[in-house]
Amino acid sequence: MKQVKIFDTTLRDGEQSPGCSMNLQEKLEVARALEKLKVDVIEAGFAISSPGDFESVKSIAEAVHDCTVASLARLNIKDIDAAYNAVRGAADPRIHVFIATSPLHMQYKLKMTEEQVLEKTEKLVAYAKHYCSNIQFSAEDATRSEPAFLAKVVDTAIRAGATTINIPDTVGYTTPTEMHDLIAYLVANVENADKVDFAVHCHNDLGLGVANSLAGVLGGATQIECTINGLGERAGNASLEEVVMAMRTRPDIYPNMPRIDTKRLYNTSKLVYNIIGQTPALNKPIVGANAFAHESGIHQHGVLANRSTYEIMTPESVGITTNKIVLGKHSGKHAFDARLRELGYELTEEELADCFEKFKVLCDKKKTVSDADIRALVTHKKRIVENTKCTLDRFYVHASNVLSATSTVRLKLANGTIIEDAAVGNGPVDASYNAVRKLLNPPAHTLEKYSINAVSEGKDSLGEALVKIKLEDSDDLISGRGLSTDIVEASILAYLNAVEKII
Ligand code: KIV
Ligand code: ZN
Predict the structure, then answer these.
(1) Any residues with Cβ below 6 Å from ligand 1, and which?
(2) CA 406 – ligand 1 centroid, Å
(3) pTM: predicted TM-score of the whole model, two decimal places
(4) Residues within 5 Å of ion ligand 2 by Cβ?
(5) What burial letters (b/e) apply to 79-89, b meaning 16+ CB within 10 Å?
(6) CA distances for 129 relative to 98, 121, 138, 460, angstroms
(7) Distances 200 to 203, 315, 428 between C-alpha atoms, Å
(8) Which site from 53, 104, 110, 227 is most exposed, i.e. has the minimal number of CB atoms within 10 Å?
C-alpha cells in the first residue's frame, strides 16, 4: 500500500478563517515547524489573493527544503501565473488549481455549464502544467457533485497533466461511508487513476472531518488534507494531529501511516495556538489539557496497574513529557538545557544563555517552574524579533472602580535616554497603552485583538499577552507578545513589541 501523504493547509484554509490570520514572520515559523514535523506538502497560501499572500508563499517556498510547497489558484491564467511565480523557488513547487463541479455551484456561483467546466479544466490544467510538473486539481464541492460528471472532470484533469486529484467535502456535508464509496468509485472508474494520488479534503461542519478523511483513505485516497488544530473555515478542517494519531494507533486498519514525526505534534499544535492567541478546549483530542488525564478512581487504578488498560496511545508519542523532576532556582544550566531538549527544543548557545537568565528571574517569582512555563519562555523568546528601539524600564498603574485608571510608563531608548509619560484610560491596560502612544507617537493604527492567557496553573502563573494591531492604510495585522507574571506588564510588553514594528 502507498504511504499516505499529509498535505497541510494551515497556512491557507486555516489562516483564511476569522481570527487566525498570521504575519509573514509567523507563517515562516509555522512552515519551518511543519517541515520538521515532516508533512509532505505545505499549502503556503493563495498567491493571487493579496501582495502579502504572494510574498509569504514566495518566502516559504524559498525557506523550506524538505517538502513540496503549493499555492492555490482558481482555474484562470492570472491566478495560475501568480501561483507559479510564488512557488517557483521551492525545491518541489506545486500549483493547486480548483473549480467547482456541483450543480449548485456551477449554476449559481460559476454560471457555467458542465461542458464549459470540462473545457476550462482541460485548457487551464494544461496551462499550469507548462510551468511545472507537479499539479494538483481540486473539484470544489465534490461531495455534492454528480459522481459520473465528477469522474469525467477528474479524467479530463488527469489527461491534461494533473498529478494529484483532490476530492473536497467543501461544506462538511458527506459521511464516512459516502466518502469511502465516492473515492472507491473514482479510483475504479477513471482511467489512469493509479498514476495519480487521490486526496481528501474534509471540512468539519458535522464533526466528521477526521472520520471522513480516514474513510477516504480506506476507499483508496493516498493524500489527506488537514490543518494543525483543525483550523479552517467555519467549523474547520480535519485536524492533522487527530488524523495522524488515528492512523498510528490503528496500523491494523491503516498500515500506510504517513511519515510524520508524531513526537513533534504537541509543540507544533502549541505554536499555532500561541500565534493565533487561542488555547485548545480541555477535551480536544491529542493536545487538550485533559487528553491524557485520568480522573476517575477506576481508571487511575487500571492505569497504575498497566497503562494500556485506559491509554490507547502514550503522551510521549505526541511529544508530551511526563517528567516529574521539578526545576527551580537551584537548577543549573545543564539541567535546564536537558529539560529543553526533552521538550523538543534545540537552542543556540546564545538563545540558551538568554532563556536561562529569564528562567532564573522567573524562579525568584515562582516556587516551581513547570514545563508549560519553560515552553512559554522559549516560544516567546524565539518568536520575538529583537526590537531595539526601546525597552520597558518601569511602569506604575493605579486602577480602581471609582476613578479612571492612570498609568505612568518609563521607557529606555536604544541610546540610553529615559522617557516617561502618564495617561488615563479605561482600565490599567488602556491607560498604559495611551501612555505608550504619547511616548512613541506611532503611526495611526487600531488595536484589532488583545488577549491574555495563563501559561500554567496557579495565581502566580506566567501571563502571555497577545496583541494584533492594524495600520490605517493596510490590511496586514502586526502582532506583539509579552510574557510576565504581572498581566499588566505582559500587556505593555506585547503592545510595545507590536508598536515598535510599525515605527
Ligand atoms: O474546501 C475546499 O473545497 C477548498 C478547495 C479550494 C480545495 O478549500
Ligand atoms: Zn477547504
Answers:
(1) 13, 98, 138, 140, 166, 168, 170, 201, 203
(2) 49
(3) 0.89
(4) 13
(5) bbbbbbbbbbe
(6) 14, 12, 15, 58
(7) 10, 28, 49
(8) 104
Residue carrying the nine cell digits 461531495: 143
CA-proximal residue: ligand 1, atom 8 (nearest): 13
Distance 140 CA to ligand 1 centre (A): 6
Residues 372/378/383/387 CA torsion (nearest 10 deg): 120
**Cell 517556498, located at residue:** 61
Q: Ligand 1 atom 2: the closest Cα is on which residue?
A: 170
Count the residues in the chain. 503
Q: From the alpha carbon of 140, which atom of ligand 1 is closest?
A: 3
Strands 197-202 and 68-74: unpaired
| DSSP SS3 for 400 | coil
**pLDDT tens string 423-435:** 999 999 999 999 9
In this structure, the dihedral spanned by the alpha carbons of residues 153, 158, 164 and 170, taken in order and rounded to 10 degrees, is 0
Query: Separation of 9 CA from ligand 2 center, angstroms?
Result: 8
Q: How many CA atoms, within 13 angstroms, populate the side-chain half-sphere of residue 121?
A: 29
pLDDT in tens, 169-222: 999 999 999 999 999 999 999 999 999 999 999 999 999 999 999 999 999 999
356: left (phi over 0), alpha (psi -120 to 50) or beta: alpha
Dihedral sign for Cα 72, 32, 227, 475, please. Answer: negative
